[in-house]
Every structure is written in structure tokens, then in C-alpha cells.
């Protein structure tokens, strides 16, 4: 079985591209910031510098860890679910659940190891860049030099491999638990109930996020680092909660949108509604990175805005150091937002490429290429609407309480332009990657596409 | 120049031929070393008949079907469906041409997994922007014996039932011609017999025109006529075929092709 998994890796590298990209970028971010801890323990570091390094590593680690985990989990689940038919086949010819599990986990670990290995060099450079910025902003003594060592390697490989392993076990369990006939059924329809544990943990994270928000607004008024840390945590927890609840919430959204979709002229609205309802879990997989992208970008950008407003209120002029700190924050947020953005693209490209056969079938029964593209675009619109809605809600759990704590007012006096830019970026990423991929996919002649087995 | 071969009722515009291929040639690959999949095929298929196309593997059956159905453009030659010539155009124009005139039934059942049987049957009508008469669609499903299964998803149906839904879908859109490529290829004998019986019934009772590619002599015996292809050329036909006659003809054909290839290699 292990041999089988290595063989399928070698034969079909394109299938694993999305997971590989996710583990590579994820491990890069993890190891970049974990190397700050290496830098901390490497030699004589003054207490102030030490504090900066640890704070940076752990605070950024919050969002970093979350999005890396989700990226690895979601791309690997996608990979496993795309191979559900293959696994059902293996099962029907007598493979035991344990054998299939071993194969899936073996593949996932191999992908994660390759991704983490490739990430070492970029992570060394990334960590060096952060240290350079910390030097420039005077938050780190000039004599502290960047180190990349055991902690970065252990954390990077450890987290990436564990995340990949857990994702594979969960995904494989979903397919292997069901009996052979049902497995074929699930492979065909993609429908299975949302596990209760997922719903419960989603609710727990939402409540945790809300309590962070309330704590920030009520108990941490005017505070310093703690306000920022707890405040930021609110959106992180809320975003995790929404991500876990995505299938359930998407079902609610599509129930509301069903009416408007049905009155749209043509067949696209009808197909969109059927497809989203019929493949909730797959569709929710694409919503998650949009939630994270919107949540991270909106939450952290507005925290910085509020920070600036608070400075302005006290009458203090922004010093060079303040501006440098802002730059540093934006670079860090930028890295995470770019990562989340790449995951939006990654997930949608992989999911849309996989629909080659479905598009071919639709065209054989009379769908024109523009009709197929309109349907994909409409589905993308539903996904980005849901993702932006939930991501924005998650961000408010940070933004409003932080505004209350820092400015004493619920609504910060900041421009809405930043938010609109984030939404626009989410829409462009989603529609660009889904419709763009579909355009490429439907270039295959309809018969060839409809009769491929994959 | 390509008038109807004979006009049973004196109506001059009435088309007696549902499909006509004139000197159709299809090659694949590089221009200096082409693979000739269809070589100068000319044939007319009368409306309201059930035609089977047979030939050894690689003889060009699928290519014939794809060219005749407007799924692929011939390298040269002309194709008429229901009297209208298939002319070059973009995918959208071709799709619109096809959806008014042809329906398909393939070996893989090709039903959309998120739609119920009934919704699958109605989908071509929706795509074409035609009014969807659900009662008519239900009636067609009932005619293929699936009245009780109308609201089931494809995954909840057996292979034979799925293929019957695919046939109902093709029939419900009332195309001039239905093209079927190995429609029984993935079915057991009983299910295959049901499917072939349904196809024949839609010709006898509904006046449907069907062109079916198969390699199975028993399947071909359900047709009114069989066309034989070898090395991309039409090499004969058989009317009112029996399974035995078809099998004999196929055996001879395979021998001839093998001999011809041997000679070609020997030269
Ligand atoms: N897309 C293609 N590219 C190159 N050669 C092709 C292609 N499709 C079919 N052929 C070749 O054309 C010939 C006829 O193929 P096909 O029509 O599929 O035969 P059949 O359906 O009778 O088995 C074969 O020699 C086949 O290899
Ligand atoms: Mg063929």
C-alpha cells in the first residue's frame, strides 16, 4: 500500500500540486517565524530584544498557525475527496480500511515532507527579512543576528507533518468508515452529514472569539500589548469557528439565495443552486480560505488604523519609529494575507480543474461554453458572498471591541475604502481563479472531457 | 446536388434523410504522417430508422459518430443533419446547432450527480431555453419504466436504470437523431436487452432516428440496418440483421483487415 501511494505520487504529480503548494508555503511561514526563537536562544540577547523576538514569533504564530493548518487540512481533504471514487474502487476489490488509510496517510506525509524540505531555504531568507525589519525599526539590538536552527526545523516539520497526517486520517476515515456501496454513493454525490464534533467545536471557537471581543471592550480599555493580543485573538477564533461551521452556514446562505437565483434568466441560477446544495462540503472547502483571507486582512488592517487614530487622538505625532512599526505590521499581515489569497486560488483552481468531466457532460447535452462559464461565475459569486460575509463578521469581533478599547467608540472613524479593497480583492481572486480555470478546462473537446474517467 | 434519394410523399421540402455524410475524411496527427480515421465516407441514413455501425476496434466507429453528430469537424467533406449543413463555427454556434437536432447516449451514463432523474431529463430543455413540461418528462421516464424513480439521484440507481434515464433524457428533447456510442457497453445482459428494446421502441413507435455504434452482434441485431467500417472506410451493410449474420460478417472482416495489414507490412 505504501508502494502504491508513492507510485501514485510519482505518476500524477499535478494532482498533488495544490497540497504541495499549501504545505510548502505554510512551512515557509511557520519556519520563518519559528527561526526568531532560534535567534533568541542562539546567544547573548538583551532582554528587550528577547521580548520582541518571542512576542513576534508567538503573536504572528497565531494567525500563521491557523491558516497553515487550514490550508493543509483543506487541500488534503480536497485531494482525498477527489480520489474518493478511486478509494471506493479499491474497497470494492477488497482493500481493507486500514490498507486504504495507510495509503492516504503515506501520500499525505510524503507530500508534507517534500513541501517542508523545499521550504527550508525560503524560510531562512524570510526569517532574515523579519530580523532585518526589526533592526530597522529599532526593536532589535543591531548585534543580534538571525539564526535558523533546530527550533525552526522541528516546529516547521512537526506542525506540517502532524497537520497533514491528521487531515489524511480524518479524510480517510470518512471514506473508509462507510461500506463499499455507500462509499461509491458518497463519491458520486459528495453528500455526507456534517459531523457533530465539527459543529460543536465550531460553536466553541465562536464563543471563545466573542468572549475575547467582550473582554477587550470591557476589561482591557486603553491597555497596551495585552489589548492588542487578546483583541486580535477574537477574530482568529471567530474565523476558525466560521470555517468549521462553513458547510452549515453555506446551506443557510443558499437557502436564502435560492429565490433570487431561480428568477435569474437562463439555466445558470438553477444549476448553481442545485450544485451548491448537492455538494455542500466541497463548496464549503472553497469558502474557508475566503473567510480567512477576509478575516485576516480586514481585522489586522483596521487594528492598525485604530492604532493610528488612537495616536492621533492623544495629539502625539507619528514618529519614525511608529511608522516603521506600522510598516513591519503591514509586511507581516501582508505575508499572511498573500498566503491566504494564494490558498483561495489554489483551492478553486484544484476544485474547478476536477470538474472537467462534469463540464463535458453539460456541453454534450446542450450547454454552450458561455452557459457553463456563467454557472461557474454564479457559483463563485455565492462562495465569495458567503466567505466575505463570514470573514467580515469574524473581523468585527476584533475591530469593534478594539475600537471601544482604544477610541472609546464603537464605530472607528476610519475610511471604508480599505474594507472595500479587501472585498474587491476577494471577489477578483475567487472569480478570476474559478472562471479562469473553467475557461481553460472547457477547451477540451466535450466528448473527450465527458468520457474521461478521472 | 444532394437531394433526397427518394421522396415517399411528394412534399419537396420533406427530408427523407436524417443524416448525410458526403466524402467525409478525418485525419489525426501531423500533416506529413497522418492517421486516417475516416477515409472518404459517403452515406445517407433515412429518417425513422435504427442504424448500427460496426467494425473492428480502431476502424473509426467513434470518429464516424462524432463527425456525424457535429461533435467533431471532419478534415474534409460535408455533413448534413436533418437537411441542414454543419458548417464551421465556434463551439457556441455548434452547440446551438446540435441541441436542436441531436441527442446523445454514451457508454458512461453521463448523468449530472446533483440532479434527480427527472431533473436530468429536463435539463437539455432548460439549457435550450425551452419551456419545461415536467408532465411530459415524467411520462417519458415512465415509458422507460422509471416512473417510481423520478426523484432519485443517479447514485441511487443501478447502471441499467441510469442508462434508461439517459435514454429518456435524449428522447424527451425530441431531437431529429439520437447518437449512441456503445450504450450497452457497461451493462449486464438483461439490462442491455432492456436498453436496446427501448431504443428500438422509440424508433418503431415514436418515429425516432437512431445511430448506434457497437461491437456486439446481439446489440446490432436490434437495428434495422448495420453498416460495417474497416480502416476508416465503409465496407458493406446488412439489412434486417440477425446476430449470427452480423457475427459471421464481423469475423470475415477481421480476417480481411488482418490480412491487409500483413500484406502492408510485408511490402
Ligand atoms: N484524438 C485522436 N488522436 C489521434 N488518433 C486518433 C484520435 N482518435 C482516434 N484516433 C485514431 O483513429 C482511428 C479510429 O479511432 P476510433 O474512431 O476511436 O475507432 P473505434 O471507435 O472504431 O475503435 C484509430 O486508429 C485511432 O487510433
Ligand atoms: Mg470507439
Report on the architecture of this protein:
The complex is a heterodimer of chains A (454) and B (267). By secondary structure, chain A is mostly helical. Chain A has 16 helices and no strands. Chain B has a single domain (5-264), classed as Rossmann fold, CATH 3.40.50.300. Chain B contains eight helices and ten strands. Chain B has helices at 61-68, 91-101, 117-127, 134-143, 159-172, 189-204, 217-220, 243-266; strands at residues 17-28, 35-46, 50-54, 76-81, 84-85, 102-106, 177-181, 209-213, 225-230, 233-239. In chain B, the strands form two sheets. In chain B, strands 6-7-8-3-9-10 form a six-stranded mixed β-sheet, sandwiched between helices. In chain B, strands 2-1-4-5 form a four-stranded antiparallel β-sheet. Chain B is globular, with a radius of gyration of 19 Å. The A-B interface holds A 184-185, 188-190, 266-267, 270, 274-275, 277-279, 358, 361-371, 445-447, 450-451, 453 and B 66, 71-72, 91-92, 95-96, 98-99, 103-104, 106-108, 110-115, 119, 123-124, 126-129, 153-156, 169, 173. The structure holds adenosine-5'-diphosphate and magnesium ion. Adenosine-5'-diphosphate (ADP) binds next to strand 2 and helix 1 of chain B.
Amino acid at each position: 500500500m505504501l508502494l502504491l501511494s508513492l507510485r501514485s505520487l510519482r505518476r500524477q504529480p499535478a494532482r498533488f500540486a495544490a497540497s504541495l503548494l499549501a504545505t510548502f508555503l505554510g512551512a515557509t511561514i511557520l519556519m520563518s517565524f519559528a527561526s526568531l526563537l532560534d535567534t533568541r536562544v542562539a546567544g547573548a540577547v538583551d532582554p528587550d530584544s528577547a521580548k520582541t523576538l518571542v512576542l513576534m514569533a508567538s503573536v504572528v504564530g497565531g494567525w500563521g498557525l491557523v491558516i497553515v493548518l487550514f490550508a493543509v487540512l483543506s487541500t488534503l481533504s480536497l485531494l482525498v475527496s477527489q480520489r474518493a471514487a478511486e478509494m471506493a474502487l479499491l474497497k470494492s476489490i477488497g482493500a481493507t480500511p486500514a490498507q486504504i488509510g495507510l495509503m492516504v496517510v503515506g501520500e499525505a506525509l510524503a507530500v508534507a515532507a517534500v513541501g517542508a524540505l523545499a521550504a527550508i531555504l525560503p524560510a531562512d531568507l524570510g526569517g532574515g527579512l523579519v530580523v532585518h525589519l526589526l533592526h530597522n525599526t529599532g526593536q532589535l539590538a543591531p548585534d543580534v543576528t538571525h539564526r535558523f536552527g533546530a527550533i525552526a526545523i522541528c516546529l516547521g516539520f512537526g506542525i506540517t507533518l502532524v497537520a497533514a497526517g491528521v487531515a489524511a486520517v480524518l479524510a480517510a476515515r470518512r471514506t473508509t468508515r462507510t461500506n463499499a456501496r455507500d462509499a461509491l454513493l458518497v463519491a458520486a454525490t459528495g453528500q455526507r452529514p456534517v459531523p457533530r464534533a465539527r459543529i460543536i467545536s465550531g460553536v466553541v471557537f465562536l464563543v471563545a472569539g466573542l468572549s475575547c471581543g467582550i473582554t477587550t471592550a470591557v476589561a482591557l480599555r486603553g491597555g497596551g500589548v495585552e489589548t492588542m493580543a487578546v483583541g486580535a485573538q477574537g477574530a482568529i477564533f471567530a474565523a476558525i469557528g466560521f470555517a468549521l461551521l462553513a458547510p452549515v452556514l453555506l446551506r443557510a446562505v443558499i437557502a436564502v439565495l435560492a429565490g433570487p437565483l431561480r428568477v435569474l434568466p437562463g439555466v445558470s441560477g438553477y444549476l448553481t443552486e442545485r450544485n451548491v446544495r448537492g455538494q455542500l462540503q466541497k463548496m464549503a472547502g472553497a469558502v474557508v480560505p475566503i473567510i480567512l483571507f477576509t478575516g485576516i486582512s480586514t481585522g489586522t488592517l483596521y487594528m492598525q488604523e485604530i492604532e493610528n487614530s488612537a495616536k492621533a487622538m492623544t495629539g502625539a505625532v507619528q514618529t519614525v519609529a511608529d511608522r516603521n512599526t506600522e510598516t513591519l505590521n503591514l509586511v507581516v499581515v501582508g505575508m499572511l494575507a498573500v498566503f491566504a489569497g494564494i490558498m483561495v486560488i489554489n483551492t478553486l483552481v484544484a476544485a474547478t480543474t476536477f470538474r472537467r468531466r462534469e463540464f463535458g457532460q453539460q456541453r454534450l447535452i446542450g450547454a454552450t461554453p458561455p452557459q457553463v462559464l456563467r454557472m461557474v461565475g454564479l457559483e463563485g459569486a455565492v462562495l465569495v458572498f458567503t466567505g466575505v460575509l463570514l470573514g467580515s463578521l469574524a473581523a468585527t469581533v476584533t475591530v469593534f471591541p478594539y475600537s471601544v478599547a482604544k477610541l472609546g467608540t464603537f464605530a472607528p472613524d476610519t475610511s471604508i475604502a480599505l474594507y472595500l479593497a479587501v472585498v474587491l480583492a476577494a471577489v477578483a481572486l475567487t472569480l478570476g481563479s474559478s472562471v479562469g480555470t473553467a475557461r481553460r478546462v472547457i477547451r477540451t473537446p466535450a466528448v473527450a472531457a465527458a468520457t474521461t474517467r478521472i | 446536388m444532394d437531394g433526397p434519394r427518394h421522396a415517399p410523399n411528394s412534399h419537396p421540402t420533406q427530408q427523407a434523410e436524417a443524416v448525410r455524410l458526403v466524402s467525409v475524411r478525418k485525419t489525426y496527427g501531423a500533416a506529413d504522417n497522418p492517421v486516417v480515421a475516416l477515409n472518404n465516407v459517403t452515406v445517407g441514413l433515412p429518417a425513422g430508422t435504427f442504424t448500427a455501425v460496426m467494425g473492428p476496434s480502431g476502424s473509426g466507429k467513434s470518429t464516424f459518430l462524432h463527425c456525424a453528430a457535429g461533435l467533431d469537424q471532419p478534415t474534409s467533406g460535408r455533413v448534413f443533419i436533418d437537411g441542414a449543413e454543419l458548417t464551421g463555427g465556434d463551439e457556441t454556434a455548434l452547440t446551438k446547432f446540435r441541441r436542436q437536432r441531436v441527442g446523445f447516449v454514451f457508454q458512461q451514463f453521463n448523468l449530472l450527480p446533483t440532479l434527480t432523474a427527472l431533473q436530468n431529463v429536463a435539463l437539455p430543455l432548460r439549457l435550450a431555453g425551452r419551456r419545461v413540461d415536467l408532465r411530459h418528462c415524467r411520462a417519458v421516464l415512465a415509458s422507460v419504466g422509471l416512473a417510481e424513480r423520478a426523484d432519485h439521484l443517479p447514485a441511487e440507481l443501478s447502471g441499467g436504470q441510469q442508462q434508461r434515464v439517459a435514454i429518456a433524457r435524449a428522447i424527451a428533447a425530441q431531437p431529429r437523431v439520437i447518437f449512441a456510442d456503445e450504450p450497452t457497453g457497461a451493462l449486464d445482459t438483461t439490462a442491455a436487452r432492456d436498453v436496446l428494446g427501448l431504443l428500438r421502441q422509440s424508433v418503431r413507435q415514436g418515429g425516432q432516428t437512431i445511430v448506434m455504434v457497437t461491437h456486439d452482434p446481439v446489440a446490432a441485431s436490434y437495428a434495422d440496418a448495420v453498416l460495417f467500417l474497416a480502416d476508416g472506410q465503409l465496407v458493406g451493410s446488412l439489412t434486417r440483421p440477425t446476430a449470427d449474420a452480423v457475427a459471421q460478417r464481423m469475423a470475415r472482416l477481421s480476417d480481411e483487415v488482418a490480412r491487409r495489414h500483413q500484406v502492408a507490412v510485408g511490402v
